[in-house]
Amino acid sequence: MSSSQFDESVVRETDVEVEAPVESGSDVAWERTGSEHEIDQPSSPSSSGYAGEGGSTSATSASSLIEIQRDEIEEQMRIHIDEISISDSNASWIPGKRHQDEDDASISWRKRKKHFFILSNSGKPIYSRYGDEHKLAGFSATLQAIISFVENGGDSVKLVRAGKHQVVFLVKGPIYLVCISSTEEPYESLKGQLELIYGQMLVILTRSVNKCFEKNPKFDMTPLLGGTDTIFSSLIHSFSWNPATFLHAYTCLPLSYATRQAAGAVLQDIADSGVLFATLMCRHKVISLVGAQKASLHPDDMLLLANFVMSSESFRTSESFSPVCLPRYNPSAFLYAYIHYFDADTYLMLLTTNSDAFYHLKDCRIRIEMVLLKSNVLSEVQRSLLDGGMHVEDLPPIPHSGPSHLGQHIPPSDSPERFKEANHDTGGPAGLWHFIYRSIYLDQYVSSEFSSSISTRQQQKRLYRAYQKLFASMHDKGIGPHKTQFRRDENYVLLCWVTQDFELYAAFDPLADKALAIKTCNRVCQWIKDVENEIFLLGASPFSW
Amino acid sequence: MPSRRRTLLKVIILGDSGVGKTSLMNQYVNKKFSNQYKATIGADFLTKEVQFEDRLFTLQIWDTAGQERFQSLGVAFYRGADCCVLVYDVNSMKSFENLNNWREEFLIQANPSDPENFPFVVIGNKIDIDGGNSRVVSEKKARAWCASKGNIPYYETSAKEGINVEEAFQCIAKNALKSGEEEELYLPDTIDVGNSNQQRATGCEC
Ligand SMILES: Nc1nc2c(ncn2[C@@H]2O[C@H](COP(=O)(O)OP(=O)(O)OP(=O)(O)O)[C@@H](O)[C@H]2O)c(=O)[nH]1
Ligand SMILES: [Mg+2]
């Protein structure tokens, strides 16, 4: 952890200060991998006959043919997107005459803020977040036409903007992934989400599914994904609540060092007996995690694996054995996962390369379970769930001596004192509402509990979106690395601080004082350093990428 | 103490996705039924103690996923089975026609010593639906198929109403037991599958 201090003078010199959100324009723009820039074109809501006005204006230019075709495609795209946005742009809406009988023609379908599609390069739908895949065949074909048209030109589509909508494309061999969104999330975030959806598909099928397309381009993949809808929908849902989806780090359940050690020790024993990865999880949080020699588990793989397990109800009823693929570990091969829930929240995943290992893993689980019970790990886990993690109200003052413990400032939760001390209307000191700290070296992050100012799901989702934007802007290679960022809008003050060792994202009351907020961030970093034994998994084998 | 081989019986349940394999197992083991469909991923595993002719046995039931993508998984699950249960839905012709594929796939992958006499049990499930009016596979047709495959015992069940489930599993246990005893005599090399409890000291091959 860095000993550097975050102070106002540093912020003034190097940071980006934004006092109001920048609204994106309402133009149609194409962004292509070949050229990083966006080409802005005026939207022409009146151009109903495609290859009409748009085409004629460019007919005189040297590249007229491609221009016309692009306009054509663009127009078709616009038609579809306008159908989606029927509720908000009457001027440019063209009745969906070509798709009267389809689900993409239904108002509820179009009103959705965020669509995700997976389709094959022959235009066959594979997955759609909303609506029936087969009824959306026409729409899929349009998407496919757009992608392959631009690909043929030696380029690949990345982003199309149309009014309020962004359409993001990701091409993975024979598989196309598309997101249509009016949520104003940055392109990088949406692309990252498509990458995760693709990764989730690999978890279920491995990349060998590509071979099916090589043999038969018309291959219909939907039967192979039978029964997996909830896995994808739960992943998509997690884009709005789980910061791991954009931080590319995992988070641990807060536990005393001794408790986590006890769990780690027994997992280590197991890993030495031929298990590739042994992980003990509580919901999406890690209790302990051990990899066999040299094997390392990428945080994205962990996210996808945990989502796979938690969203498949069948794992909860009995112990299970299933093939899974870890795309970052090896996208081409299956591993075998033994999965067992100890209680409603806590589950064990043992991964091996051996498809015959079920009984061995079952024995391992029995051994693990005995140790966990003997050392009270499972009851400690339940207690941690009740207590929660870091509460901003408990942020200790800065001149701080002696080892600190998580929650030492919290009287037992049934005590009335708790309610007196914590000022639930203002959150923590200096109007601190929430923070996320990501340790770069550990690949782990810790997120504070939400203060009462951000208590609804809607508010929490909005904050995560704001963090996500901040994250994207801090990691935008084009602009160069920022060290700090200070943003104030009507909802919050957002502060971001990035060093070689960590990244801190903090949200304050919109009226918070800047200097005080910066001081508070320093206190947060100190606090995390003090309790790192309890909130992070330390000293395990490095989980390098 | 009686030998392991006789106390632990491995049973595999196969059949198309959605025919009710998990529901049958849950009805049998937990006496529960849910209308909600939760696709099995890979294979689930439950055990149940059964009594047969004054002796106690543990049925180790492997409830496999019927979804297409798991069909290549066979060997991992099938090997060392003492009995294989083939389930179809009496309201779905396709699920019945696929019984043949499931049976053949099992015999290839599990590679039992005496395939002709390996104990199968066939279950036609969901007889409760629509009072039997939406049924498309007749009992006669099903029994004819069973007869042609070496007189496989046949049961018609409803996992929902709990009809005939207990009876079907009694038969499964009985047949598994028979096969277990035979295999002990003829095929010692399959014995190590399914009893790693006793073998831990010597280590596992993984
Ligand atoms: N009416 C009726 N419904 C049943 C019966 N058995 C199962 N179902 C329903 O059929 C659906 C599928 O049942 P499952 O037991 O999950 O099917 P499965 O064969 O395990 O499917 P996979 O795990 O995908 O291979 C569920 O919605 C059950 O509620 C039955 O006897 N009667
Ligand atoms: Mg099932």
Q: In short, what is this structure?
A:
By secondary structure, chain A is an alpha+beta fold.
Q: Can you lay out the helices and strands and say which pair or pack?
A:
The complex is a heterodimer of chains A (about 550) and B (about 210).
Chain A: H1 8-14, E1 16-18, E2 28-32, E3 38-41, H2 53-57, H3 64-84, H4 107-111, E4 114-120, E5 125-128, H5 137-152, E6 157-162, E7 165-172, E8 175-181, H6 187-205, H7 209-215, H8 229-238, H9 244-247, E9 250-251, H10 257-271, E10 277-282, E11 285-291, H11 299-311, H12 314-317, E12 319-324, E13 335-341, E14 346-352, H13 358-374, H14 377-387, H15 417-421, E15 432-439, E16 444-447, H16 457-474, E17 484-488, E18 493-498, E19 502-508, H17 514-535
Parallel strand pairs in A: 1-17, 9-16
Antiparallel strand pairs in A: 2-3, 2-6, 4-5, 4-8, 6-7, 7-8, 10-11, 10-14, 12-13, 13-14, 15-16, 15-19, 17-18, 18-19
Chain B: H1 4-7, E1 8-14, H2 21-30, E2 43-52, E3 55-64, H3 74-78, E4 83-89, H4 93-97, H5 99-110, E5 120-125, H6 139-148, E6 154-156, H7 165-186
Parallel strand pairs in B: 1-3, 1-4, 4-5, 5-6
Antiparallel strand pairs in B: 2-3
Bound molecules: guanosine-5'-triphosphate and magnesium ion.
Question: Biggest interface and which pair forms it?
Answer: A-B, 34 and 32 residues
First-to-last CA distance of chain A: 20 Å
- Portion in helices of chain B: 25-40%
Protein structure class of chain B = alpha/beta
Q: Please state the second-level CATH architecture of chain B.
A: 3-Layer(aba) Sandwich
Largest β sheet strand count, sense and barrel closure of chain B = 6 strands, mixed
CATH fold group of the largest domain in chain A:
Beta-Lactamase
Secondary structure class of chain A reads: alpha+beta
CATH homology group of chain B: P-loop containing nucleotide triphosphate hydrolases
How many domain units of chain A? 3
CATH class wording of the largest domain in chain A: Alpha Beta
Strand order of the largest sheet of chain A: 1-17-18-19-15-16-9
Radius of gyration of chain A: 25 Å
**Any idea what the radius of gyration of chain B is?**
17 Å
Beta-strand share of residues of chain A? 15-25%
**Shape label of chain A:** globular
β-sheet strand percentage of chain B: 15-25%
